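> example.struct
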């Protein structure tokens, strides 16, 4: 069952929260919505003890323990579980490996270790086998065969660190006991206790789907795109989340200008909305003039040129675009974040196309010529776009995207996204923006000469 998020917030604040919530969608929006919902469920004075945020890597038994433990004080309690896809034994191995990497590098070592050990448990591996690159560890080929995803050379450092940490701390994969959590939900949670699950998507066969359908509500938090142009990106949910509490609005032409300048990087758009709210001061509405005054643009033609350069792995072209923008602005700080948003958007597009053509079984050793692509693959692409109400792309452009997506594996593209996130954090913490973007492009465009 789905419901309006604003209505659910009002119910939660009034003490009428649902037992189970599933928040699905884009990671940034879903996690933000889950935290907002949890804070509506649990009064501020009680959050230190009664608001628990954990990763699903801890396992179903640990989650159930948090849920059935009665709060110390008679106040509402919320347990937020991020990455809920991991509670299913049938998981996307590449996504789980990427998630473990994110957790580890985000200083959530215990969660990262448990998530990775859960992934490799089915192959009978432990901490020693995952120390990629060391004696006794499994090779990339073995990872690919047994796990379904393989680390790269750049993963050696963090995997070896994780292996050592897991060994020293005696960390093991959580028990395969999702039935414990299912039974707890079927029996009913203690009064004023709420489970908030966060996931990109839980399929109908996920072990918790029946409990969610019977006892809970599903919330979708996605930035839909109804066509090819950036103007069709719907950021209303993000705008409401960032500006609603400040009682500010974003003018329609200001929104279009913001998207034209930044592309579809939701995190970057959120950051700029916060800056715009401060810049607008007491004004109730952010105008196009405000956007033009403080948001450095990634121009539309530059945006597509950058996407092409990243897709082709053309380091020289990508660096030239960056340096051209630096000459125009003469301010590396004003250029770095929008340009970084363009890089991240390009990588996400490659990742999307990679997944699309893998699903069509088109990633074999032989690359299809244009005529064969038109005949074999493009009808499926066309059908997918029509089913989603999207504009059908040009066949030749789709073929070029298909060829670009073939050149890098999903783990490589996921790693590139992580590097973009790390660069984003570094820029915001005072790192040299020019040097940082140049280093990022060196990593993201590995095919260039």
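> example.seq
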């Amino acid at each position: 069952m789905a419901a309006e998020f604003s209505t659910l917030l009002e119910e939660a604040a009034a003490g009428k929260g649902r037992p189970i919530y599933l928040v699905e969608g884009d990671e940034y929006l879903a996690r933000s919505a889950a935290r907002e919902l949890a804070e509506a469920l649990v009064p501020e004075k009680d959050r230190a003890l009664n608001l628990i945020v954990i990763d699903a890597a801890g396992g179903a038994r640990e989650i159930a323990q948090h849920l059935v433990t009665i709060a110390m004080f008679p106040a509402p309690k919320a347990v937020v579980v991020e990455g809920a896809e991991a509670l299913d034994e049938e998981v996307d191995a590449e996504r789980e490996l990427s998630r473990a990497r994110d957790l580890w590098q985000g200083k959530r070592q215990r969660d990262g270790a448990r998530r990775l050990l859960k992934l490799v448990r089915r192959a009978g591996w432990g901490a020693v086998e995952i120390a990629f690159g060391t004696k006794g560890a499994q090779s990339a080929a073995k990872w690919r065969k047994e796990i379904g995803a393989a680390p790269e050379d750049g993963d050696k450092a963090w995997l070896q660190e994780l292996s050592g940490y897991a060994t020293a701390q005696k960390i093991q994969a959580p028990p395969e006991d999702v039935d414990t959590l299912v039974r707890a939900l079927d029996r009913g949670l203690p009064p004023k206790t709420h489970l908030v699950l966060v996931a990109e998507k839980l399929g109908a066969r996920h072990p918790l789907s029946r409990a969610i359908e019977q006892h809970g509500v599903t919330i979708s938090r996605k930035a839909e795109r109804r066509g090819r142009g950036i103007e069709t990106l719907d950021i209303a949910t993000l705008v409401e989340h960032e500006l609603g509490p400040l009682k500010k609005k974003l003018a329609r032409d200001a929104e279009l200008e913001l998207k034209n300048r930044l592309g579809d990087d939701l995190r970057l758009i959120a950051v700029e909305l916060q800056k715009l709210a401060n810049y607008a001061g007491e004004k109730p509405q952010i105008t196009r003039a405000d956007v033009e005054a403080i948001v450095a643009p990634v121009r539309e033609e530059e945006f597509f040129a950058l996407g092409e350069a990243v897709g082709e792995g053309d380091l020289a072209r990508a660096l030239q675009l960056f340096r051209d923008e630096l000459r125009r602005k003469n301010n590396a700080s004003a250029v770095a974040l929008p340009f970084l948003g363009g890089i991240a958007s390009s990588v996400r597009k490659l990742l999307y196309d990679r997944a699309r053509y893998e699903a069509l079984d088109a990633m074999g050793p032989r690359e299809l010529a244009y005529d064969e692509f038109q005949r074999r693959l493009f009808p499926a692409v066309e059908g997918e776009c029509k089913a989603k109400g999207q504009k059908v792309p040009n066949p030749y452009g789709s073929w070029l995207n298909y060829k670009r997506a073939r050149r890098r594996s999903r783990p490589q593209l996921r790693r590139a996204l992580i590097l973009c996130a790390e660069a984003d954090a570094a820029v915001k913490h005072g790192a040299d923006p020019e040097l940082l973007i140049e280093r990022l492009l060196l990593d993201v465009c590995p095919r260039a000469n």
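> remarks
The mean pLDDT is 84.
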